[in-house]
Amino acid sequence: MKICFFGSSLVSSYWNGAATYYRGILKALAALGHEIIFFEPDAFERQSHRDIPDPEWARVIVYPATAEGWQRSLEEASSSADLLVKASGVGVFDAELETAMVQTPSRARRVYWDVDAPATLDEIAANPKHHLRKAIPNYDIVFTYGGGTPVVKAYRAAGARDCVPIYNALDPAHHFPVDPVAQFASDLGFLGNRLPDRESRVDAFFLAAARRLPSKQFLLGGSGWDNKHVPRNVRRTGHVGTADHNGFFCSSLATLNVNRESMARYGYSPPTRIFEAVGAGACLITDRWKGIDLFLEPNREVLVAADGDEVAAHLDGLTATRAREIATRARRRILAHHTYAQRAVQVHEVLEGSFTQAGAAG
Predict the structure, then answer these.
(1) pLDDT confidence of residue 34
(2) Mean pLDDT per 10-residue run, the chain (362 residues)?
(3) Whole-number pLDDT of residue 355
(4) Which of 82, 90, 239, 293 is exposed most, by the fewest CB atoms within 10 A?
């Protein structure tokens, strides 16, 4: 199947947290024999902050971030694709692309792939004139980055013909244990870009814990934190490219995951960082959200905290030996049940079933 995928960026993780999700899913789909063409806009300086060259398993087309740019790209893709995919959060001309993709003549099936479904669904609910209210019923299927039953029900209520969560996962060829890196050494590390619906939760879980434990060292990674007021025991390291993720996760006693507010509220939305950190051998502490036990067992494979006080308590009582034991059990679980190879088989089977049903209906 020829899959033409419109997303934020495959080659750059700069202000683009979905990059490793795209790479994991699409690389694994290519391994199943699908042809991948990824269309991304030349926007937000991502091309000057590339993490990887064009991969051998996908053709990358960078189009001008203009109306003419996306229109020509969609015309090119529509003329030859078996499957047209529009991912959420491209960052430029999203509404136009999401509407045009289901209006442009093509033999291709159409997929809307939402990498931030809780936020999207909140926007739709708040805006009676939201463009997706008309567009979603015209897509053949909606895939989501997570969200479980609450997101599936909400998308079906919004008119989706079907909705299937395709969760984040691990690509063990890219995220694996390495030797600790001195510049990333700390007691607790957190990696995530500064975003409006994340910042208050970083304050509550990460910075509050740092204030409770002034003798511990904390490391804050990601873009946008440069002018953030932080306690003295918090060090900022700025953007961390994907080539340095393993070193970042391996070099702290523990790594913190903090879900964005909307994702925590819906639940069942493990971000990429969970799988990447565990794959790299990190001991993970996460904020509490419904569904965590479907991926990792609390207290044995992951430490779960309701607030910064509980993060501090976990960290204060954590020894290097216990951290290694938790990390080892977690990595074993993720490798057994949550790899992108497994996710790609799920996508492949859903798409094959969709095509078969469409053919029978015809």
Answers:
(1) 97
(2) 97 92 97 97 96 96 98 97 97 97 96 94 94 97 93 96 96 96 98 92 98 98 96 96 95 96 87 94 96 96 98 98 98 97 96 62 44
(3) 55
(4) 293
Q: How many CB atoms lie within 10 A of CB 31?
A: 12
CA-wise closest residue to 258 among 194, 323, 187, 214: 194
Q: Residue 33: left (phi > 0), alpha (psi -120 to 50), or beta?
A: left
Would residue 278 be called left, alpha or beta, if left means φ above 0 and alpha means ψ between -120 and 50 degrees? alpha
**C-alpha to C-alpha distance for 136 and 156, rounded to whole angstroms:** 9
Structure tokens that stand for 303 in this block: 């430490």
Return the H-helix or E-strand segment holding 152: helix 148-157
Strand order in the sheet with 252-257: 234-238, 218-221, 186-191, 252-257, 284-287, 303-305
φ, ψ of residue 123 in degrees (nearest 5)? -65, -45
Residue 208 neighbours by CB distance under 10 Å: 17
**CA dist., res. 11 & res. 323, Å (int):** 33
Contact 24, 64 (CB under 8 A): no
What three-state secondary structure class fits 92? Answer: coil
The pTM (predicted TM-score) of the whole model is 0.90
Q: Which residue bears the tokens 């949550």?
A: 338
Residues 6+ apart with CB under 8 A from 32: 344, 345, 348
CB of 283 closer than 8 Å to CB of 327: yes
Residue of 295, 271, 300, 269 lying closest to 283 (CA atoms): 300
Size (the chain), residues: 362
Range 211-215 contact pairs with CB under 8 angstroms and sequence separation of 24 or more:
211/308, 212/308, 212/309, 212/312, 213/187, 213/312, 213/315, 213/316
CA distance 339 to 316: 32
Sheet with strand 2-6: strands edge to edge: 59-64, 35-42, 2-6, 83-87, 109-114, 141-144, 163-165
The whole-angstrom separation of Cα 128 and Cα 123 is 9
